[in-house]
Amino acid sequence: MGVALPGQMPRRWLHSAIPLAVFALLLVYLWARNLRCGSGTQSCIAEGPPPFQVQQQSGPVEGAEWEEPQCLGPQGMLGRIMRQFRASLKPEGDVELSQYLAGWRDLVRFVTPLGSIFAFATSEASAKVTALEALVHGPQAAHYTSLGTMVAWERPEIASSPSRASGSVSMLLLHRALRWSQLCLHRVATGMLGGPDAGVQCSDAYGTALAPHHSWLVRQAAHLAFLAFPGRGRLLKLMCPGARETEARAALARAAGTLEDVYNRTQGLLAERGLLELA
After folding, report:
1. Weakest-pLDDT range from 79-83, 228-232, 259-263
2. Does residue 172 lie within any of the structural domains?
3. % of the chain residues with pLDDT over 90
4. Number of CB atoms found within 10 A of residue 279's CB
5. Quick check: is 42 in a domain?
6. Which of 125, 98, 100, 101 is nearest to 111 (CA)?
């Protein structure tokens, strides 16, 4: 039998001890984690709110005692906006133009008093709403009942001279502006204390939704306008008067979710028809 050389036994023992030590530490960690989670004093669920849910700051957003704020009620502007836009989503997958434009009219009325940047961002949208309303109620109204019927009617102009397809171009511009409105409302609703201010978040939303389609001069003007953007607390009070902060945040998150549903439906219809870059 060979005799073990000095130093061989400690090295062999060390190679066996390292995996055992790691395994033991893992067991200790799992035991401690289970003990902490089961104690009821600390949650082991990942932190952070899921999309379109308000960050809870003083209890559940919509607990058993939560009452729907007036801004979502029959006379509330946010409630009117949501109902009009929801009604535009036809069961067969189209978008009804009259309801869509009614929602936009209320949205413009809602955001214009909130500050110059909202008036700036919605000024073009207001003009496009007027242009589309003239078509919806004009001599060719039968062809402007929905997004689908409008695009079918304007298909020859879209193929030969896109700029002449006034209804489709107006719809596309409104579609982009709706994306900014939805992102801004969502970020005002879900922004956390200590995080970026509402002005910074809505400016970022402008950079995502509208800036790529604006000239350099317009982008600079928008940047200056965002410097005077109201603070989050002020916006919540203006957008949902009389409501507590958690209620106002929940109301805005609901409204933003409705706008996202309409945006996604319109985005799909425009994409199917190759109209996302019409203007």
Report:
1. 228-232
2. yes
3. 41
4. 15
5. no
6. 125
Residues 6+ apart with CB under 8 A from 166: 131, 135, 154
Within a domain: 3: no
CA dist 221 and 210 (Å) reads 13
Q: How far is CA 72 from CA 29, 68, 126, 151, 236, in A?
A: 48, 7, 23, 33, 13
- 202 vs 238: CA distance, rounded Å: 16
Q: Which residue's structure tokens are 């309409």?
A: 262
Amino acid of residue 120: F
Half-sphere exposure of 224 (CA within 13 A, CB side): 5
Q: Residue 97 is part of a domain; what is its CATH number?
A: 1.10.3520.10
DSSP string, 73-90: STT-HHHHHHHHHHHTB-
Distance CA 86, CA 37 (A): 41
As a whole number of angstroms, the distance between CA 119 and CA 225 comes to 10
Lowest average pLDDT, out of 55-64, 96-105, 211-220, goes to 55-64
The pLDDT value given to residue 123: 76
